[in-house]
Amino acid sequence: MTVPALCAKAVSKRFGRINALDDVDFVLEKGEVHALLGVNGAGKSTFIKILSGVYVKDKGVIEVDGREIDCHNPKDAIRCGIATVQQHPELVADFTGYENIFLGRESARASFLSGIDRSVLKRRGDELLSRFPVEIDLSRRIEDMSAVEREIIAILQAIAGDHIRILILDEPTSTLTEVEKEVLFRLMNTLRASGISILYITHRLEEVMEIADRFSVFRGGRMISTMTPQQVRDKNLSLAELMLGETLGAVFPEKAEPAQLGELVLDVRNLRHQRLFSNVSFQLRRGEILGVFGLVGSGIDELSKVLYGALATDAGSVELNGREVSPKSPAEALKAGIFLVPGDRRVEGLSLQQSSIFNITLANLGRASSFAGFLKRSANRRKSEEFAARVTLSPANVTMPVSGFSGGNQQKIVVAKGLFADADVYIFVEPTVGVDIGARAKLYGLMRELAKTSGVIVMSTDCDEAHGISDRAFALYKGRQVVPVDRVFTRNELLMAGIMGDATHA
């Protein structure tokens, strides 16, 4: 009988009164890609952190290659053959791929006086690429690499030791294009063929059917089921419904009727930013959600930042409520009534070491402070708890540092911050990256609720999202706006407009 790569038996973990994991049994076979699914708070992140040595289990047994292990920190996990690539890999931007892969392991006999022999690093890196072939130039600096190349460097860094047999990948495709995703999947198949077992965490359910050999569903701290993609197809099951434990209704709320639209709130004419996008024009009414679809590099991120005052415009005009505005900073945009939920929440949307209360109230300090300028602490906490409940924050602890929340819950805090801002125009960029299917439906519902009194713009590299949530939509293709001949794009027309520059191939 073949010994599995990893076996967990009755693993449990509590945080105070919260039972995060309850008697979880799990098996990872050798050379297997095994996906972990579950809504935020289901327990999968806790399980992964126990395996990677971030948390210590309360009880249970974990075995690697049939040997019981007990990890008290990440170094213990690595010694036991378990390596983890986090959702946002921490790489040194000024260093080359070689230097990042062997960071801290430059010399077998490192000392204060020993130098770094870069020819040795190159040889070791080339040997690694011979084991796991992938097209990448390791001599380039990280800051010059694409998102998928940085992900590959992080993976090579994790498996550089010959003893690594289990690789944990946390949301590795969250910032990748479809083409880049295929590059990553080819590397994963190479790793699988070499005998390395992969635990794959993702909220993109279609990827599970494409890359995973098996998947396990976590719900309420328990491991509910383990299946193969083929079993799902044979039984005509819904992964989303397995995760939620209930029948999944429509993910997107009903679109607004033309009669429900209010007055013109935003009028953008011939907006341009250097060579990133040009001559973008659109109107937005209260009660309306406008979708903007574009691939990575299309200009959607830059367009959002121009509207928010984070980037300067070269030409064009913006009118808000009939009055021309030209915010030179996010502070000016907020004051005018424009709020941005950015695509990179960790860098642009949150102060990770501060509490949810601090982050939620930061966008409207006038509302958060008394006439004398003192923070209204009790009122701010009540409001933060109210908005945390509306976005279903889990755990609903508004005093803990934001860094302690999962990626999906961090995104919810940014949305709650937008609710507190009480703006006229809300701009959402990649609003559901790292957010599970259940929470995604709730966030879409919140956007529709916001649109009742404001105008909402959703910019996304996910065509289904940009089309599904919006009343109208247009595409950006290499900085050029592509609009429908009639009033509304179909989903396929919008997709073709965003990836080919026109809708004629739909």
From TrEMBL:
Pfam family, one: ABC_tran
SUPFAM superfamilies: P-loop containing nucleoside triphosphate hydrolases
Molecular functions (GO terms): ATP binding; ATP hydrolysis activity
Origin: domain of life: Bacteria
Gene3D superfamilies: P-loop containing nucleotide triphosphate hydrolases
CDD domains registered for this protein in UniProt: ABC_Carb_Monos_I, ABC_Carb_Monos_II
Keywords, in A-Z order: ATP-binding, Nucleotide-binding, Repeat, Sugar transport, Transport
Domain ABC transporter per the UniProt entry, residue ranges: 6-245, 259-503
Family: Belongs to the ABC transporter superfamily.
Protein known as: Sugar ABC transporter ATP-binding protein
Annotated organism of origin: Mesorhizobium sanjuanii
